[in-house]
Specification:
alpha/beta; ornithine cyclodeaminase, domain 1; Rossmann fold; 2 domains; 10 helices; 15 strands
Length: 318
């Protein structure tokens, strides 16, 4: 049996942000329609390594699939596998580091389109790594962004990020040395860090701000503080079920009695109008994303399609 294999270079060649946003948005619409099923991440621990496993069924695509990745102290390795729904046969195996970066950014771009005020022209970004790049690119794709302000702990990296992304996106991007400057008066604030503790103080948020917190998917990590959660008039998740399972950002707010998961909404439901979104330009809204396998499966399916159109990839004999 021959199986399509796409390496990281293939994914890089085939994928762009507008395509990714379109595919991921459709996967959320299909989730809302009951034509897709997502299973939250589970982890297996051994000395020096963690195996992360997540899977989904995309009935609307005729595919089921999984994302598996390992993390060690030195690196992470990502793969996505796709199976034909009608036969159960493995049809594709994809290297998925770039895929994951793009789909994570795309989800934030979709959330910003749906939840931010429509005149949001400035973005504050916490983090200057790979994930922060796709976060900013996606939001700049779906919103009328003209300027971004970036803060991270490493001065050299935040300056390099500002220079690189300014050239790539044709935006004015300023690297700042105080976290407060990446929050105050800004209509969108994105956190894409590896921090275990909150990266800014909730009292710095202005009315109307959308906070997109994407860095933490562990119960013992939190990029946002209790005040940010308390001030939020609405909490929207990529998946409430997944966030309840692994988002540590809400631990303090739950303990203090100012938040419960029953009040959170799925992005898929807000997207199609099954749940309310922004009610007022002054609302502070919190969007939390931990990542979902349905995004990987849907994007993997599109990559298989594009690979066939462009003659990209290689065959594995299984």
């Amino acid at each position: 049996m021959s199986v399509l294999h796409l390496c990281e270079a293939d994914v890089e060649r085939l994928l762009d942000m507008p395509t990714t946003i379109g595919v991921v948005e459709e996967s959320f619409r299909q989730l809302a329609a009951g034509k897709a099923h997502n299973v939250p991440r589970h982890r297996a621990h051994a000395k020096g390594i963690v195996l992360h496993s997540m899977n989904a069924a995309a009935d609307y695509l005729g595919l089921v699939g999984w994302k598996q990745y390992t993390t060690t102290s030195s690196c992470a390795k990502f793969h996505v596998g796709l199976y034909e729904q009608s036969t159960g046969s493995l049809v594709a195996l994809l290297e998925a580091d770039r895929l994951g970066q793009m789909r994570t950014g795309a989800v934030t771009g979709i959330a910003a389109k749906v939840l931010a005020n429509p005149d949001a022209e400035q973005v504050g970004v916490f983090g200057s790594g790979w994930q922060a790049e796709s976060q900013l690119e996606a939001v700049a794709t779906t919103c009328p962004v003209k300027r971004a302000i970036v803060f991270s702990r490493n001065a050299d990296r935040r300056r390099e990020f500002a220079e690189k992304m300014s050239e790539r996106l044709s935006l004015e991007i300023e690297a700042v040395d105080e976290p407060r400057r990446a929050v105050e008066t800004l209509p969108i604030v994105i956190t894409a860090t590896t921090s275990r503790v909150p990266v800014f103080r909730g009292e710095w948020l202005s009315s109307g701000t959308l906070v997109c917190a994407i860095g933490s998917n562990w119960k013992q990590k939190a990029e946002i503080d209790l005040t940010s959660v308390r001030r939020a008039g609405l909490v929207v998740c990529d998946s409430v079920e997944s966030c309840e399972h692994e988002a540590g950002d809400f631990n303090d707010a739950i303990e203090a009695g100012v938040f419960s998961w029953e009040s959170a909404r799925n992005l898929s439901d807000v997207l199609v109008g099954n749940a309310p979104g922004r009610k007022s330009p002054d609302d502070i809204i919190l969007f939390k994303s931990v990542g979902m396998a349905i995004e990987d499966v849907a994007l993997g399916a599109r990559l298989v399609e594009l690979a066939g159109q462009h003659g990209v990839g290689s065959s594995l004999e299984i």
